[in-house]
Every structure is written in C-alpha cells, then in structure tokens.
Amino acid sequence: MKIPKFGLNRFDARSVDFFAADVRRAETLGWDAALQPDSQLRRRDTYVLLAAAVEEIWAGASEAGRDPASVGLGVIFHTVLVDEPALALTMAKSMAAGYYEYSPALFAPPRFEWAGPDPETLKRRHQVHPDFHHATDLEASGRVVDFLDTTVADAFSLRGGPAEVADQLVEALRRAPAEFDYVVLHPIPNPPSPDDPERGYTARVAREVLPRVRRALADG
After folding, report:
1. Edge-to-edge strand order for the sheet containing 33-34?
2. Beta strands in the chain (DSSP E)
C-alpha cells in the first residue's frame, strides 16, 4: 500500500525563528511536512468543507478533462493522543460535536443521531467557548455532549495512546476510497508552545506512532 507523507500543523509560532527551529526539529524527528493552518474562526472550517469530498473532487476533475487519479489528495485527522481511555473518548466527543456544530449534514450519510439540544444552546448553557473544537477545556466540553455514541466519536477523530492511534490510522487509510499523498495529524488537545521536546505531541507521534504506521502500510 502507498505510504503517504505525514504532516503536522502545530508549531511554535512565537516568532519566525522559533517557528523555523520547531519545523527543523519535527523534520529531524521524522515528520515529512509542515503546514500552517487557517483559522476556522475567520471562515467556515476548511477541514469540514473538505470532508467526504473525494467523489466531488474526482467528478470535477473528469468534467475538466483530467484523469481523476492524477489529482493529489490529503486528509486531516483530529488526533486525540491521550493515554487515559475515558478522557480520550470524552475529548473525541467534543471533536464530533465540533463537526456537527459547523456542518450537521456530516451526520446524515452514516445516519448518526444528535440526541441533545442545539450546539449553540449547549455552548451558552455550559460556557463552551469559542466552539467544541477549540474549547480551552476539552474534557469539560466533551462531557457536555456525553450523549453522543462512541461510534460517533470514533468517526471524527483518532483517539487513545500511540498504539491505538496508529492502529486506527492504519485501518482508516486501508478503508479509504482513495490513497492519500499527505496525512495531517492534527493534535488534540492543542499542545503548548513550545512543546515538550521529549514527551510532547510532536516527539511522541514521530517516535511512537509514525514508525508503526509506516511498517503496517509497507506490509500491505
């Protein structure tokens, strides 16, 4: 199976020099690409707008007279790298709620159910700010939407310790309708800046997740 390039979209942004140094560190650790995300607080979430878009991309390529297979694809996974299972699940539920908040139509194809009040009502009632994706306390915001099923949480993020995250990622890539050129592992919760050089997200994923994923994909 094709092994995609793995990218990270969280770096030390205190200055240009700090950013450049952090990108160099990530490259040394084994990451393939550095990305600078847009803010979904300024416009609709780019990640959400691209979700489930593979067929539309291929259709547009065909209409333009291009070979759909020639169009490179990338995918972003919200990655809850949290060793404690219950906490990881709670944060993953907040991620699922964030997707529903911005694009409730995403729940329709898999026939997921939103059994609680409207997200805006929940945010006001429980002081979730600015949204379920970016709440400062993702454990608290996740508890607000505890009515969401585990299957729903797992559909919108990877979660758990390194082994669980790696295995979920391999399964998702193998089941995907297309192969990807780039896979971005968006860190949840948002790591501090600067990140811990040994136990932080950047180092742990490069050391404990990516090698396991690359080996599994290389084996087919």
Report:
1. 33-34, 5-8, 182-188, 74-81, 158-160
2. 5-8, 33-34, 74-81, 158-160, 182-188
CA separation for the pair 214, 85 (Å, rounded):
24
What one-character-per-residue DSSP string does 153-192 give?
HHHH-EEESHHHHHHHHHHHHHHSSS--SEEEEEEESPPP
Alpha carbons 19 and 11: distance in angstroms, whole number = 6
Mean pLDDT of each 10-residue bin along the chain, 220 residues long:
89 76 87 69 41 62 78 87 98 97 88 95 96 96 98 95 97 87 93 90 97 93
Inter-residue contact 1 to 173 (CB < 8 Å)? yes
Number of other residues whose CB lies within 10 A of the CB of residue 212: 16
Task: Give bridge partners of residue 187 from the DSSP assignment.
Answer: 79
Give the global pTM.
0.80
CA–CA dist 24, 39 (Å, integer): 23
Q: Which residues contact 130 (CB under 8 A, 6 or more apart)?
A: 41
